[in-house]
Amino acid sequence: MGMHVDNRLPRNLQTDAVALEELFQALLTWLDSVSDGGSAEAGVWFGSRLADPEPGTVVIDAVRQEPPGIAAFPSRGYDLSRLRLTAAALDGTVEVFPPAHGRTQLQIALPIEGVPGSPPIGRVWGEAFAARRALALRDLLLDHSLCVASLRQTGLSVEIAKNAHSYRRRLRDFVDKGETIDFALICRRTAGDETTVLVEETRALCAGPQPQILISGITEITPDLQRAGADGVVRGGAMCRRTLTAMFDLARDLAWQRSGQEIPSFIGRRIMIVEDVAANQTILKGMLAPTGADLVIVDNGLDAVAAQKAEPADLVLMDIRLPEMDGVEASRQIRALCPDCRIIALTANALCSDRERYLKAGMNGYLAKPVMVDALYGEAVKQLQDA
Q1: What is the CA radius of gyration of the chain?
Q2: Mind listing the pLDDT tens digit for each residue in 81-121?
Q3: Best CA proximity match to 66, nearest among 98, 97, 101
Q4: Are 342 and 359 contacting, i.e. CB atoms less than 8 angstroms apart?
Q5: pLDDT in tens, 30-51
Q6: CB atoms < 10 A from the CB of 77, how many?
Q7: How far is CA 180 from CA 127, 128, 157, in A?
Q8: Mapped to the 3 state alphabet, what secondary structure does the chain carry?
Q9: How many C-beta atoms lie closer than 10 Å to residue 152's C-beta?
């Protein structure tokens, strides 16, 4: 099963979280009812138009493709009834399209607005994908143009090929024009037995700067793929967030390579990252790993206080909105435990009153989200020099 969440979607939404969770549980039940050997995908879009999404509209496209020889069916009555009830609780609607060629599709429209000032979720990747190009081989059930528009929010330029022939043709076009491909994404399900050959051809054709090659639909790189030149895998389903995380992990130095900034050395320093969003953890870890710091990652305020008691960190990067205990209270308790520890708030709140509150809680500084590598290095160097 594949899931794509639009990177243009506001990070914080004004809605009933419980009702929204119930709707997604009903949606997953509908998707899971596809026959063995079939496939299912869902896309959560910020509106249905590309350039100018409708404000206050979230559209969910869901598609099931039955295997050859099995006719499509809308769903069991219970599944559709549950979907319609959960959508109605959010003042939304469900439209079911007539089955055709083994394919069943429905669309859910929800009147949900973003919290004022909330940035699009695609900004979580900072500048890592700015001006970068990717060529993907994947036969998506979803609208390709919507997926491309979503990925552009990260700064990434993407072309999607539906089959191996189209992938080869587009790859040669890039090479003939002298254009660089930064990432090649090959879906094992789509490429089939040609997966290894396509990796070899990608390596052979790209005579200049070599792309990072990712394979989706497998759990680990096989010896033949490794010999062919594959760099990594997207484990589990080919979900957009997993793919971007894997890409970032392979090319996490792109942002500071482009900035030309010297990477500071934090060897012998212990830095704790307190962040509950896995993608943010990956980004911060990727930015700080080359500094040589001893990195510790926790995902809630209570664990941050416990970790500081067990083995104090020299620097704490503290998210504000955390489960169990928020970042402000965790900072107060860490400050009481360790007066010399430096704490940097990571926050989307840029109001002066918020910043004053963070400083009164014992924090030494703050960085606005999405965190940029230059700003992170600068603030970390400043705080550790003052320690």
Answers
A1: 23
A2: 889 999 999 999 999 888 888 888 899 999 988 888 888 88
A3: 101
A4: no
A5: 888 877 878 888 888 887 544 4
A6: 8
A7: 18, 16, 12
A8: CEEEECCCCECCEECCHHHHHHHHHHHHHHHHCCCCCCEEEEEEEECCCCCCCCCCCEEEEEEEECCCCCCCCCCCHHHHHHHHHHHHCCCCEEEECCCECCEEEEEEEECCEECCCCCEHHHHHCCCCCCEEEEEECCCCCCHHHHHHHHHCCCEEEEEECCHHHHHHHHHHHHHCCCCCCEEEEEHHHHHHHHHHHHHHHHHHCCCCCCEEEEECCCCCCHHHHHHCCCEEECCCCCHHHHHHHHHHHCCCHHHHHHCCCCCCCCCCEEEEECCCHHHHHHHHHHHHHHCCEEEEECCHHHHHHHHHHCCCCEEEEECCCCCCCHHHHHHHHHHHCCCCEEEEEECCCCHHHHHHHHHCCCCEEEECCCCHHHHHHHHHHHHHHC
A9: 16
Q: How far apart are CA 370 and CA 108, in angstroms?
A: 30
Instruction: Read off the tokens for 275.
Output: 């962040």
